[in-house]
Amino acid sequence: MSTFAAEDRLASTDTDRDGLRERYRAVRRYTEKLAAPLSPEDQTVQSMPDVSPTKWHRAHVTWFFETFVLAGAEPDFKAHEETYWFLFNSYYEGVGPRYSRPMRGVISRPGAHDVGVYRDVVDDRMVSLIDRLDDGSLTKLADTIELGFHHEQQHQELLLMDIKHVLSLNPLRPVYAGEPALTEPMAAPGDAGWVDFEGGLVEIGHDGDGFHFDNELPAHQQFLLPYRLADRLVTNGEWMQFMADGGYQRHEFWLSDGWAKIQEEGWSAPYYWTEEDGLWLEHTLHGTRPVDPALPVCHVSHYEADAYASWAGKRLPSEAEWEHAARQQEGTQVSGNVADNQTWHPQPAGAPTGKLRQLFGDCWEWTGTSYLPYPGFHPAEGAVGEYNGKFMSSQMVLRGGCALTPPGHARVSYRNFFPPGARWPMTGVRLADGGAPAA
Ligand SMILES: [Fe+2]
Predict the structure, then answer these.
(1) Where is the Sulfatase-modifying factor enzyme-like domain (predicted)?
(2) Which residues fall inside 5 Å of ion ligand 1, going by CB?
(3) Are residues 361 and 240 located together in one domain of the fold?
(4) 157 C-alpha to center of ligand 1: Å?
(5) How far is the CA of 189 from the centre of ligand 1 (A)?
(6) How far does residue 114's CA lie from ligand 1's centre (Å)?
(7) Rounded to whole angstroms, how far apart are CA atoms 295 and 181?
(8) 416: closest CA among 304, 323, 325, 354?
(9) Cα(241) to centroid of ligand 1, in Å?
(10) Mean pLDDT throughout 328-343?
(11) Confidence label for 5 from pLDDT (cuts 50, 70 and 90)
């Protein structure tokens, strides 16, 4: 298994020449380390339309730098391979046509090795560009290069989410990397406590220095009634109680779309759970193992999260409640079980602290808030304006990060989003109570 050194982390926020060069190298190296345990065959599989092959992720993030940085900045720009622009454009209409997303798994060529060559060539050109541009030109490009870092980090998490799904369908039950995890149950965290917040007129959204996506702007005020949040995530043990009480069979807990979905898909447990001889097993990146009641439940959809909350007589937090609570408790500090821990899985909450535990890392937390523009939102100029804004329909906001989130990528104002039926992201549940129902 690869080891991740401190220099691989995107901890610095320097945007001067040296900072950009070192951060570029760090983020690119991190992607390759994540892919290193995977064979060329592993890297080619697309196990469902939402999943992209590992080598496609490696190539697409490279295409991003080639398209949005090199093409506009190199005087005699020539694409590494013209055809790659068609193969590795994801969804940018402003850049041109692209290959069918659900068919990415049939692209056997270029192979994983060719993608490595593509990465090396673009890396040399990017570092050369950063070194030779005059200060003014580099300053103008710095925001786009920085967007490329954070874009690649998003794909680092997707790479892990996606290969988890790929490996889950292999009857040999392969392990992503390392030894299979121990199967002894972990220490149960005890009953969840509650942390109270006064609410009132609060401010959310990105309001300081440092990188942010356009969807985190503008910072603005929202009014919150007094509310409380559970001090930890819902556990597998609690989810088993929901299942034992007919949670997946009793319509009264479910949103109409969710009830229709579980009939259609036959859902009766979280995504990666299977029952064998009366024992629930869970597929993880460390292999298949018995479901541990002490661990947070993960890979549940928004529909399931909402139904669980209804069963428990509670609700999901709104995104404004989540962000306000996180700011009250942590300011803008972020720490938790994210990818550099290399657990690749949520961990137990530990002993109560009187504060919210597991805010960052472990599992993305479903909110009850639809993914919509903040008041006064404007997408970024140009083709990169397609990055976030055009997806503001039929999706729900998630907050916090997960065990697959690259270090330095999570922040208090970060708005993740997925359709309410998505289960392959590492998603979990924190309950809320009091105040007003989520908007
Ligand atoms: Fe992308």
Answers:
(1) 193-432
(2) 90
(3) yes
(4) 11
(5) 37
(6) 19
(7) 13
(8) 323
(9) 39
(10) 88
(11) very low
62 Cα: distance to centroid of ligand 1 (angstroms) = 10
389 pLDDT band, cuts 50/70/90, is confident
148 C-alpha to ligand 1 centroid (Å): 9
Number of structural domains the chain divides into = 2
Q: What percent of the chain has pLDDT over 70?
A: 94
The last residue of a domain, from among 168, 184, 205: 168
- Residue ending a domain, among 168, 184, 202, is 168
| CATH label of the domain that carries residue 106 | 1.20.120
What is the band of 184 on the pLDDT scale with cuts at 50, 70, 90? low
pLDDT for 310-320, tens place per residue?
999 999 999 99
- Name the residue range of residue 98's domain: 2-168
State the distance from the centre of ligand 1 to the C-alpha of 246, rounded, in angstroms.
39
Q: How do residues 57-73 score in pLDDT, each as one tens digit?
A: 999 999 999 999 999 99
88 & 40 share domain: yes
